[in-house]
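SEVERITY: medium
COMPONENT: batch folding queue
REPORTER: lab tech (J.R.)

DESCRIPTION
The queue accepted two submissions in a row. Attaching both inputs and their returned structure tokens so the on-call engineer can compare them side by side.

ATTACHMENT 1
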Amino acid sequence: MSPVDFIAIAPLIVTAATAVVVMLAIAIHRAHALAAGLCCAGLAAAMLSIGPAWSASPRQVTALLIVDHYGLFYIALLLAGSLVVAIFAHGYQKHATHPEELYLLLLLAALGSAVLVVSSHFISLFLGLEILSVALYALIAYPRLRQEPVEAGIKYLVLGSASAGFLLFGMALVYAQLGTMTLARLASALASGIVTADPVIALGVALMLTGVGFKLGVVPFHMWAPDVYEGAPAPVGAFIATVSKASMVALLFRYFAGINISNYRSLLVALSVIAIASMFAGNLLALLQTNLKRILAYSSISHLGYVLVAIQAPGRAAAEAAAYYLAAYMITLLLAFGAIAVLSKDGKEMDRLEDYRGLFWRNPLPAAALTAAMLSLAGIPLTAGFIGKFYIVAAGVEAALWPLVIVLVITSVIGLFYYLRVVVAIYGDPPRSDSTGSSQPANSAPTGRLALSALMLALIVLGVYPGPLMNVLRSVTAELLH
């Protein structure tokens, strides 16, 4: 490796080095503020290192990593999301007994996510995925003295291990037939039509998509999502819903962008069925929920279905639409889970809809943040969610994916009901027991409330003025599709 290679992968190096520094700091002296500060400083430094890496890219760093502007954009997005999660975790864990290791696990999960988006080899893909997954197992069950997080962690561990087995077996079958483990070779095999001609490769690709489908939480691999979202601590739920899923979508788009899926009927049918089932199941099942975190879990299933519409649409417009949608989706979910984290206290999650009745009259800022998140998820104009959904529909119309576009519109209308139900609860009359209360949330740390305000501002700015971000996306996706 040359010095330029090290510059190109500087964000990964800084993130990994920060994890080591936090680990040593915990071993020397336990201090919650110190661990949180080092974690946030390291993530900020990793984001700053993207500047030099941007100048050094595009670059193939060994056979394992392809560092280009597309990958660096997503790394910046993932690191920013991880930084916001760390800020919310600091207030959420204010009264925890041993809160420091959470930041170490968060850094490792962020590192695994970043490796995924620049992977060019089966080995780096699997390493990135397992670094992410193993860290998530521990993060979900981190409040080990509470029953719900431990149950959620065990469920994610068992199902995650099974999905890793599917992924590995699929990789083995593809390697047995192609004699290579580079993802570019697999993409070219898809483009050449060899997959449809060779049933072993077709089976291998199907098994790999099964493993990826589990990580995305799309139907029929979605059953873990509501239980894990409900049981995980609110900041960890935010990380699962945003950073971990965005990294897998970025990886999928990197290798589907170069082929026209419409030329491969079996793959197109499989993805279409998964997308339609996810959109319907996610929205319909969310109608029955009275737990806000379970509503967000089923909502995430439907939103990943929307992203699969863009994945099936060829061309640059679809890649731009998916990237914008993911950015909007990450901001929105971080805002929703951030409000839950700020409001939760003494180890009790503020996750029942009844807990939010009349919230605006008691705590206006978290109420406004949650309202903005619900409106964005519903696709209401003047929010980033509306612009993102508009771009997805436009990409589907341009590719003449009419059945998918029609289902997207219908299920979006269904989703309005449960999103607005949350908003109605927030602005309704408070329960009699709280009607005179004016207490602030126990975790109302200034940093958490500042993060909520910044996310709300970003949500509105991207909904009103999407031009600058779209210009960046046009440049990075043009390089990807070149």
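ATTACHMENT 2
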Amino acid sequence: MRPEAELVLLLCRIPIRVESTRLIRALLKRSLEWEAVFSIAQAWEVEPVVFMNLRSLGGEALSGEIHRQLAIREQASRALALGATLRALELIRQVESPVRRVLLLKGPALAVAGYGDPSLRTSADIDLLVRRADLASAGDKLVAIGYKRDYPLIDERMLIKNQHALEFSRPGSKVELHWTLLSRHLHLNIDVDELWTSKQAIELGGVTIEAIAAQHLFFYICAHGAKHEWARLRWICDIAQFGERLSHGEVESVLTLATRLHAKRLVLLALVLARDIAGADISRFDIGSLGEEKHVQAAVSHVRQGLGLEAQSFVGVSRIVRDERLRTLLFWARARERLRDRAASFTIMLLSSQQQKALRWSRH
């Protein structure tokens, strides 16, 4: 790993691990390419925390110009994060008027839960959970305030049936409306009513809003990361940050949920990645109850290679598959412990693809 990447990796946690401080100061004595440091932090989407930590620890090891650039970049990245938080609050207020109930997913809710500050975690999309019966009203409201559907309206019923999020966008903002957490083809259905009955109140910018409960949020980001092959370092940092802040009862609830849904390997993979890449303390989780680590080592290596943290020593099946959907589904299947769940994912995806082809054919 190049020293610039190693430095960013050591700086992407709060608080900085004691054992990392010495390594960071040793790296700062080397001749570093600072544009590479800035680019890596941006690519890994960890700028606010990295730049804040670097300004705090750099001291005399950094030139005045580097200090100046860090201050500007930290301020800009944290302002963007706060901007996303303000947009989320405004959207919740606007969407709640026709549908009455909205829960916040990920984004600012995860920033507060994992980092204690909504300005320390960047987010691209605003994810909102509404009741299935309220999807149409919520979507119409988004269109009325200037968002455009990122899908043909004729496909909406099929998207909802297959549990896909409905995506809307306008310049500088993208919103995803969910009625459940994961797409149908992933064959991992969390009880929707449970999400609403166990919801929690959180404070954002002095405003109290509702979000999904901590155990559901943590489980969701474990599944979401695997769904996308853990392609972003920020997601691994989220597991590390949030996992260390869960209460004992919340940890037990996560483990119970994973057991009930036959998804223990998904959680195991997330925790091992957080430990091995982001230095997380996962001792409060009963790792042994989630399975043997040997079952996730190939997936861990796949993720490390994808992030550029490890040289590619072999070319696995998922690396040579050209179809992106199939490649990510292969990774997902490796993160499920039951053969029936793997087989169901492929079967549902195949049937869904056939339905989509039939729908496209019927339009012509």
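NOTES FROM REPORTER
The longest strand covers residues 173-178.
No errors were logged for either attachment.
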